[in-house]
Structure formats: C-alpha cells, structure tokens
Write a structure and sequence with these properties.
The structure is a single chain. By secondary structure, the protein is mainly α. The longest helix is centred in the last third of the chain and has 30 residues. The chain is globular.
Amino acid sequence: MIDLRGLPRTYWLLWTGALINRLGGFVMPLLALYLTAERGLRVEEVGLVISLFGGGALLAGPAGGFLADRLGRKRTLSGALVAGALAMLHLALARAPLHIAAAAFLLGFFGEMYRPAVSAAIADVVPARDRARAYGLLYWAVNLGFAVGSALGGAMSSHGWYLLFAGDAATTLVYAGVVWLYVPETRPAHPPHHRRERPWTPLADRPFVAFCLLMALVSLLFHQAFVTLPLDVRAHGLSPASYGSLIALNGVLIFLLQPPLARALAPFPRHRVLSAAAALVGIGFGMTALVHSIAGYVVSITVWSVGEIVMAGLGPAVAADAAPAAQRGAYQGVFQMSFGLAALGAPLLGSFMLGRFGSAALWGACLAAGLAAAAGQLALGTLRRHGEPAADAAP
C-alpha cells in the first residue's frame, strides 16, 4: 500500500507536475532511433551526441542549485522548465551533425536544470523524517510517467517525429504553468546582513562529496542498461523486441515495489541500506556475464532493479539532510552532478570495456564497482546533519 499521509499540498503539486512532465517524455527513450533513422547519424556520432547531453546535465546540477538558492525555487523551476521546452524544440529543428550535437548539449543543460530546484523545494516543505518517502514517491511517479510516455512515443513516432518533440515540450510547459500559478516560494528567508555562502561551498564538505562520488559510481552501472546491455542481449541472439520487454520489466518493478520497500526499510540506518542497495546493483549487473536467456536476464534485471528502487528515495534525502537550509539548492545541485557525470562517462567507459575486453570483463567490472560502492557507504556512515532531527529514527 502507498503511504500518502502527512505530505503537504505543495509537495503534491510538484509531484503532479513531475508526473505530467514525464508522461510527455517521448523523445529521450527514442533519441538514438531518431538520430539514426531520421537524421542519418552513424552509431559513433549518436554515442557522442548522447554523451554531450550528459555533459550538459553535468553542468546543469550546480547551475540549477545556485539559482535555486539565489533566485528562489519557484522562479528557477519555472524558468528552467520553459528553457528546457525551448531546447527540446531547438533539437527538433537541428539538421547538421554539429548543430545536433550543440542542441543536445543545450537540452542536457536547460532540460535538467530544474531538478535541484525540485529537490530543494521538497526539502523545504517536507520534514526530515518523511523525506525519503517523499523522494521515493516522486521517483515512482517519474518512472510511471516514463513507462507510459515511452509507449506513447513509440506509437506516435509512426505519425511523425515532430509530434514527439512538440508533445514533450508541451507537457514541460504545463509543468512550468503549474509551478508558476500554484506553487508558493519555499526558500527559507535569508537572514539580513548574513554573508551568503559561495555556490561551490558544498565541495568543501568532504563526506558529502564522497557520498556523491559513491552515488556516481553506482549510476555508471545503471546507464549500462541503456548502453551496453542491449548489445549484450543482441549478442546472445535475442531480438530488439526482447530487449524492449526486458527493460520494461525495470519500470514494472519500480511501480510495484517502490512504495512497500520504502516503508519496510524506513527504520534501518540509511548508510547500511544504501550499502546493501549498491551491492545488489553490482551483483545484478555482474550476473549478466553468466546469463544467456530471457529467464536469466529477468533474474539479473530484477536484482539490480531492487537496488535501484532502494537508492532512489534515499539519495536525495541524504543530500537534503546534509545541507544547511540556506544551501539546499547548492547541495542538491552537487548531488545532481553525480548523475550528470555518470551520464557523460557511462557510454564511453561501457562501450570501451565491451569493445576492448569483452562482456565478461565489463560485467565483472560492474560487480567490482557495486561492491566497492557498498563498502564505501559503510565506511562513510551517516552524513553529518545541520540542526535537524535524525531521520534514521523510526517514527
């Protein structure tokens, strides 16, 4: 059962906007197909374009976090969403490979800039004890929207690719409208005559930076599901349709398991739960080296999906708890950088390992990375908190 108790109206407005936005997330799941079929790019060029999107997302985290702390959550969120919608339409108009590459970078930058503002706003209005549940429910909504949007996008693509770009931009603008019209400003008041911290101050918080690097390491593995896993599936004689069904299992598991798992694990220390989740992710991807059939892939995907579900709500909650109230945007921005770093590096590292050393070495490296991240979370322990009650305590 999904626990909806105790979360404020502002949270549910943000949750609803995020769901609408992701229901229209038609383009990104089909971007590689669009670039090859419609724009005639080579596979290597497609990899570069997707990596440039990741490069834009890498810079979007600190930029969005800085603006959320300086301009406020409402203005940053609504402005970034409008800019992201325009960047999506710009990509639709790009023709030459260099133009497409630049447009992908801009989409990564403007299209992902809203995320730190959303996370900071949730930290502003949700008490520490409920944040992991709140972020988990947001992740659940995003993935529900992603699953539906991907299916709709596939059906719409046969009627013209421009429908996908226009629909994606339109739902993003709807989210911006919801924020501008109904979401109040949530940023805590800044004390007068108090010196503002610089946007890079979170980088001096060594335990927090270590936490972000550990999350980036695990995120590198998640991206292999869309970079090297389809190649591995094809190498074992399975069709693209089989891969589509297998990767859809990830979304189904998130939809079914995220709420009950979040409730069951809430009483346990977060660093231990994160350690177990990282180990599951590493083991799940490591198992791919041993499987050769649909059933085997189902088992391996189930294992790493459970790890992903556990980490989804806890990661931003830990970042929120570690941040001073005046720097929640900056901390969430640096946390978001960890995923941008993975989005940038995963296609390059994964394809290099697979092409140079083979699938066994790639999946063995994934296992080692997951176990290293698990050990790192245990060694790091619970991050220091800034004047808020411990969220690990059971209610």
